[in-house]
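Think of the structure tokens as a kind of shorthand, similar to the way a musician reads notation: each symbol stands for something richer, in this case the local conformation of the backbone. In the example below we present two proteins back to back. Begin with the first one, reading the sequence and then the tokens, and try to describe in your own words what changes along the chain.
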Amino acid sequence: MHTFLAASNRQTVSRFLTLFLFSGSLWPASAMVNPAITSIDNLASFDTRLSPGEPAVIFGTNLEPNPSILVGSQAATVLFSSNSQVNFQVPVGVPVGATTVTLTSSTGNSSAAFPIVLTAKAPSFFHSVGLATGPVFATHANGLQITISSPALASEVVTFFMAGLGPTSPAQPVGPTPGGVQFVTITTPVFLVNGVSSQVVSSALAPGTYGYYQVTVRIPANAPTGQLTVSASIGGNNSDSGTIYVNVPYSVGFFQPNGPLWVLDSNGSGAYELSDKVFPFAGQPGAIAVTGDWNGDGHTKVGFYLNGFWVLDYNGNGVYDGTGPGGDKFYAFGGSGPGYVPVTGDWNGDGTTKIGYYHNGFWALDTNGSGIFDAGDAFYGYGGNGAGEIPVVGDWNGDHRSKVGFFFQGLWVLDYDGNGTFTSADKYYNTFPYSAGDIPVFGDWTGDGKTKIGIFRNGFWILDANNNGTYDGVGFGKDKFYGFGGNVGDLPVAADWNGSGTTKIGFYNNGFWVLDYNGNGSYDGTGPGGDRFVAFGGQAGNQPIIGRW
């Protein structure tokens, strides 16, 4: 039995607290013999690695209700007890090395001293459904558990729950970890997802728990789809391994403003089926469709912008529920005059999409996500060449924060360092191929986590794969030149269609999508290993949209 107390999983907490409080019938009245300890494991991975302050579990017989526990000479906090299992927290101040554990029942019967060895760090994952192996317990930014039906996504920031990560600053307190103070691990763990080193955003004790740590980690941008292995080490001490579900492909959809109606290919089949999403989310004539992961759960959600007002389907149910708890977002952020362009991005790198606007060379970005322009936001003067200037947004340097830029008649100016001011660190490209009528395109053409530029011209794609701002021809270490499309009305689209971690090209025309699913730049038909031809949309006025639905 795995008793889990993670503060972010309130239903689990409630269920097990009920067990703690009303479990007196678990012990027969005749069980008044000496308790016997058969094993002691950590409460995360259920192996014998233990450290001070870590939650642990005693298995045995005749353990009896409400026992007291000594680790060496120090009393331990009992978290749960039954006739065959007692969960407890190893005292924070107990010295490392060999020691013993003794359990004494409420009737005064004591077990024999059971030997254990404590190390300063014993990193272990908590696993789902009470298992010692397999999927680890991890959550999206909104606290929902990552499962096969709600997987993590490439570049998403997720939270893993662990034990045994060692000393913190301030020092780990006795008892439950209080809120309001971050007890950060003195040593930052090293994290591997699918064998690839992954960015650790934070590592600290979880508030309200007894020795649980929460480690926020960014899934690698090039992580493949599937059940991927995860492991960690800290101070040379290796954890057990587990798995996490990752699903990264984008799929298509459309917004019909006259409905209003959103139709999203949520199962990725390319055909409209009953399992897809159809939302009558509010809209008005002139509304501009916007999409983003507003709440950080890894799924793209819908919304619209109109005359400075934003209506965002924050909870993702496709219905405007008002702005109360668990509802949606209604923001006034922008202006009602001509020239205001809505923009979205993850301005601060916390894994959630936020809003903003561009107007005549000026950018206002809701960096803190509050929906109002305040002291935590950004206001940049970056652009301003006049009519025809196109605002662009991308993660130019791969630090997981969206940054601004602009394109104007073949000139690209990109805020590479993200400070909103043109400096020597930024990118100024004026030699990349351009002809009148070219459409700028963007994507991570190589899977290194950086957004790169490109051009779509009458069915031809010129992509700056080596990210130097100059077309160097094709070949190893050079750029990409593809012929994909070319009919009148073709609209270029680009996304990671197959979840490989690289952006691939495609086009949309009157309800038909042709997607370079295998990423080789040629249309190979729709057979095994080929591409996608999708009929999804088609009425006049429909706006094509792309997302991880």
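Once you have a description of the first chain, move to the second and do the same.
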Amino acid sequence: MKLVSFAKSGRGQQARDGTSSARGSSSTAPVRPGLVLTALILVAAVANLNLLVASVALPDIGKAFNAGQVTLNLVAVGFSLGLAGSVLYLGAVGDRYGRKMMLISGTLLSIPACLLAAFAPSIGVLFAARVLGGIAAGMAFPTTLALITALWSGPARTSSIALWSAIGGASTALGPLIAGTLLATFWWGSVFIITLPLAVIAAAALFFVPAHVNETTGRVDNLGGVLSVLLVAALILMINLAPVPDLGTAVIGLGVVALAALIAFAVRQRHAAAPLYDLRVAGRRIFWVAACAGIVVFGSLMGGMFVGQQFMQNVLGYSPFQAGLAIIPAAAFMIGVAPHSARLIERHGSRLTLLAGYFFVLLAFLVMLLTWKEGTAYWKVGLGYALIGTGVGLAGTPASHSLTGSVPVKRAGMASATADLQRDLGGAIMQSILGALLAAGYAASITAAIGSAPHSQQITTSVQGQLTKSFAGAEGIAKRYPQYASQITAAAKESFLHGDHWAYAAGILAVLLGTALVYFMFPGHAQEKSLLAGYHASDLSAATKSRG
């Protein structure tokens, strides 16, 4: 309904670039704006739904492959890794060679990637399939926001971005619910084919999207693209492998690779004739603060969902369906709050709206840390998800809107890729950090429990390894030794809670740092308008000179 009403507001005279201008309005929109926006949101939903579906299936995947917590973390973060690693490079390719082509290619590639994950014969193949799915999303997802930026302007663009952001966040949150519904009847692989029918519909709907809108003609910085992939991949793998014993050398090596790639990428972007990532634009105050703020906001959503899904199934004993159903408040509040976020931005600016969102995300993590315990009532779980949904619904729109509003249209792909990185890199980093802390806290606590157990010297090294590997490993040992099942399960639950407290504390710290950044560095409403006008005038002047 919102899409239809929005479509009516965009009717007017058709322009040469496929857009129209509403009479008496400062907004412009494409011809058939409702259909175009629907198509773009459907494509984004294919990526968003895939982000968290693995989280609800992790306990079943752990049992199927006898996988440890670190390996499960990699499966959970694999899609985000592929997406975050490729999004800058592939976004630039779309800007140069055709955004619609990338939309269609990425949507179609997601189909075999989903099937490979669903029928993976090993945990390694499953991880690879998830990374491939992320790369497919990297082809399509950044183009959606780039086209919204190019096709809409004024308040219509703000409303479109708000709808894109809200439905995207809600799709991410609804993924576990749909996955849980499937797991009630089917095997763990069924969660990875959720997006197949949606991908087919999205591919058909792309017929309504204009083929070429404000695309660049310069070369693609291929070297910069390779360096960006190397940087993100090394960083995410380093964080995930950090808690694994005996892998210290590998972790240090990955850290060195990430640092070297970062330095090389920065040098390359400063000297390339056509940089992949324009550091001059990225250095604009509104742009870089919004980028960092969005990483924390969307990362908090992903991290909170990732740990929360395992908490509900492992500690509270929820079925996958119940665990998916439990997060509905997050999706509902994200969608409900987003229109208010757009109005807050227009009236009071992005800074106030971001800070309001951060406040609710902080409350969510506090509820998780202080009230999510064994036997906790559902209303406390629902409250935590409602708060984080409200926070992301408020902060998500200004985080994305500030990026697209502070760049020239020819750099829309860069802004879109950065907005995607907020979700994907933020999600990958926060999932990795919270997952690493969860794994480390669990292992430390269960190791202490083993050491203090009666007759601990009789517990074999093999059994200890299974107990410390993951909660699923402890459940397997409990089944092998039913006479000790209650003690083993109780110790595993206590250890999991020990680990998730570490994770939630890290989430609180990240939100506090993000709040301080926005409060001190993001401009107030009047200054924000002045800076954006200055950016626009500078970009217009540069474009005029280049044509002359």
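Compare your description with these statements about the second chain. Residues 32-220+276-449+490-537 form a domain with the Growth Hormone; Chain: A; fold (CATH 1.20.1250.20).
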